[in-house]
Design a protein that fits this description.
By secondary structure, the protein is α/β, with parallel strands linked by helices. Helix content is 27%, strand content 27%. The chain is built from nine helices and 36 strands. The protein has a 13-stranded parallel beta sheet, covered by helices on one side. Strands 10, 11, 14, 15, 18, 19, 22, 23, 26, 29, 31, 33 and 35 form a 13-stranded parallel beta sheet that branches. Helix 4 runs antiparallel to helix 5, helix 6 crosses helix 9 (451-480) and helix 7 crosses helix 8 (426-434). The radius of gyration is 37 Å and the shape is rod-shaped. The mean pLDDT is 86.
């Protein structure tokens, strides 16, 4: 291809390439006529075998051009940096398997982009790009950062993802703040050495996965403040040592899981200050150091089986946290979630809240027992609150003591042996009936009759029940210590 075969617009680009000068076709109008049109094969020829000038660094820097034809750089090695910004591509650029130094296509419009298995020694900048079709960067290796801030990507009318980023490797940050995507974003198996930034992003794929990031590895944080997602965010098996920041996020996937972080290892998960999650929250088998979760954001279904965490913030009363445990829907009784919540309260020194959680655990367990176990559980609950309400035993004891003392003070039972019986004392006689392991010599010396004999039997049985439930509660408390 000779320079004489080029249009005036292409000649400007050709001459500027050798010195790395920028060619700006923008004139303030919306006209994309011949004076702004450059053929893609011309750009390909420049990048693969363009003119060189001694002492200068060649670079392709074009701004505001209309690029016709397909820019085909499949498996090519390009030593020059590529700046094709504010451009309009008629066909999707094809960079599959290419080795490039640095690529910037910011503020451009194109039908799609192919960067599968490409290697880029610097960054790939797609800031504010508008993609009318899928972007494929699966398996690409980017030594710098990947910029997708305020980009628009859609796969409307197709069953293909809007962004294919699975198995991608980014040695810096993946910046997608303000991204607007219609369709699935695939990030499964991706590795991002820095942070993944999705703050202020708007992702939509209702009724299906909107972000699929199984086994994602992020070196720092996943930032999603003010994220709006319609569809399921799936982070199953992800490893994020920093924080997953979802403050002010709006998550919606009615009828399915809105957020799935099962089997993840996460430093901190922040889910606060936003509207209530619409859909299921799945935290099963996740390992989280700090779980920052506001009760008001929790949906009707929360999966907590085998979830482990160290700290739970913000500090809230146990009554506000317990509904989360009751929304698991797990079959049978799983004590693990109650033990985790109890441990979290004890770490903050709130023993009262920890006892409330343990009491709720025993009541939940009681509902799974056969009727004899449920009956015995109700007795323990009423008597001493399963050992977590020890003062209740004293109230019962004093109440029964008062009833017996009043009853027997007005109707003294006759002695069994008048010449050997001690003086009758209604208080100690009642205590003799109530306390099975202590004897004041009153019960064995007197024999009530009629209804007062029945009352004595009731007091004896009540004493044994009270003593047994207290012993069971004390044993349970000591074993936890």
């Amino acid at each position: 291809m000779e320079i004489d075969d080029l249009t005036p617009a292409e000649q400007r680009v050709w001459r500027a390439f050798a010195t790395g000068a920028e060619v700006d076709f923008r004139d303030g109008s919306d006209d994309w006529g011949p004076e702004r049109t450059v053929r893609a094969p011309v750009l390909r020829r420049l990048l693969l075998n363009g003119p060189q000038e001694q002492g200068e660094i060649a670079a392709l820097k074009v701004r505001g051009a209309r690029i016709t034809g397909a820019l085909d750089l499949r498996y090519a090695t390009v030593d020059s940096v590529v700046h094709l910004t504010h451009c309009r591509f008629e066909e999707a650029p094809d960079l599959i398997g290419a080795h490039l130094r640095y690529v910037s296509m910011r503020d451009s419009e194109m039908p799609g982009l192919q960067v599968t298995r490409a290697r880029i020694d610097g960054s790939l900048r797609l800031t504010r790009c508008r993609f009318r079709g899928p972007v494929r960067a699966d398996g690409a290796q980017i030594a710098g950062a990947l910029f997708l801030e305020e980009a628009e990507a859609t796969a409307a009318g197709t069953d293909r993802p809007a962004l294919h980023l699975h198995q991608i490797g980014v040695d810096d940050d993946l910046c997608a703040r303000g991204l607007r995507a219609r369709g699935l974003i695939r990030l499964d198996g991706a590795t991002v050495a820095g942070s993944l930034d999705l703050e202020d992003a708007e992702l939509s794929n209702p009724g299906a996965n909107v972000l699929e990031a199984d086994a994602l590895e992020v070196g720092a944080n996943l930032l999603g403040r003010r994220l709006c997602a319609q569809g399921r965010i799936d982070l199953r098996g992800a490893r994020i040592p920093g924080r997953v920041d979802l403050l002010h996020a709006r998550l919606s996937n009615p009828g399915g899981a809105a957020l799935r972080v099962s089997s993840c290892v996460i430093g901190e998960l922040w889910l606060r200050r936003g509207p209530r999650v619409e859909g299921m929250l799945n935290l099963r088998r996740a390992e989280i150091n700090q779980l920052s979760l506001e009760p008001e954001m929790l949906p009707d279904q929360v999966r907590l089986l085998d979830l482990t965490y160290v700290f739970l913030t913000p500090h809230a009363p146990a009554e506000d946290r317990l509904p989360m445990l009751e929304r698991d829907g797990v079959q049978g009784f799983d004590p693990h979630a109650y033990e985790q919540l109890t441990a979290a309260y004890r770490r903050t020194g709130d023993d009262q809240a920890a006892r409330i959680v343990q009491l709720a655990k025993q009541r939940r367990r009681r509902s799974t027992l056969p009727w004899p176990g449920r009956l015995w559980g109700h007795l323990q609950d009423a008597a001493v609150g399963y050992g977590f309400r020890p003062l209740r035993a004293a109230v019962w004891l004093l109440s029964l003591l008062a009833v017996g003392s009043v009853a027997y003070s007005g109707h003294r039972p006759p002695p069994l042996k008048a010449d050997e019986a001690p003086d009758f004392d209604p208080v100690f006689y009642t205590l003799d009936l109530l306390l099975p392991v202590i004897s004041f010599g009153q019960e064995s010396a007197f024999a009530p009759r009629g209804g007062y004999q029945t009352l004595s039997y009731v007091l004896v049985v009540a004493g044994w029940i009270l003593a047994t439930t207290v012993a069971a509660g004390v044993t349970r408390t000591i074993s936890r210590q």
